[in-house]
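Long-time lurker, finally posting.

We've been working with CCHC-type domain-containing protein (Gossypium hirsutum) and I want a structural starting point before designing mutants. I don't trust myself to interpret raw outputs, so I'm hoping someone here can both generate the structure tokens and explain anything notable. Sequence follows.
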Amino acid sequence: MESDGNNGLGGDEISLLTEELIQLSVKSSMVEPNGKFSLICSIWTEKSYNQESFKAQMRSIWKTNKKFGIQGVGQNLFMISFESEEDLETVLEGQPWLFRKQLILFDQLSKSMARDQIRLVSSPFWIKTGPYLPEFDKKDLLHAVGVTFGGVLRSEILGEFCRLRVKLNVQRPLRRGIFVSIGNGNKFWIPFKYEKLPTFCFGCGMLGHSLHDCTEIAPAEENKIREDPPFSLALKAKLNLVGRESLKLNALAKKLQIQCSNVGKSTEKQEEPSYNEQSSGMIREPQNDAWLTTKTADLEMQKEE
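Top reply, 14 upvotes:
Generated this for you. Predicted structure of CCHC-type domain-containing protein:
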């Protein structure tokens, strides 16, 4: 009686025929820059998003002088290639950028890198602080606060408030503010408000997920945290709607003069990339009043879920 297959044969007696051996080519894990001006970027979240949706949205909000290409190179990981260095710098200057209210992290890609070696963990943000006591030296205070973030990229004083641009480590919780101690031993709390703040957890303060998806918070604790969250929408800075509206009406200069007279610092307005540089070079101008209404509603985002 004939036996099927290899029955009755020992393992050392089996030899593979040519037809029983194939060679597979494994997809390269290397990410190669496409041209001189390339960025690598990732969406900071555990959720997986459709690559085509990401590409379509970025193409709709970035108004570059020349064309750019977007290539998916991994889960929530993309390479963006520009034809000009100016366009690359404009995109970097416009950070932070959001996709579906999730933060996009960027870095320049100048040489081939293995995907598992790519680490994107920081992003620049504008933080609004104040008001301050009259005896505070705002320049010294801005410097001192910036040092706690690893340095100040840019800063400006707007009346009794200040803005500073710093790099946030997205692996750490958001900071709600800082205590300032003065000579008499008293401490004063200076709150932080972040411009263009993405989705964050009201429980642990981390970017990239909501309270409902937090792995650090036990389900039984959710309701208690919702009643008195340690982190809240108080961390979100209001958008400067006057600056945006001035673009729509094509009267930016006039509007800025009015704004500057209110804060008493006309020269400071030249350094507002989060309002002026993005709007003039990157974001399409609003076409009707509904645009402003939508943006206002978005800032007043309901508590998660």
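Before you design anything, note these points.
The chain has a mean pLDDT of 77.
The helical segments are 51-61, 85-93, 138-148, 222-227, 241-248, 252-263, 273-281, 289-299.
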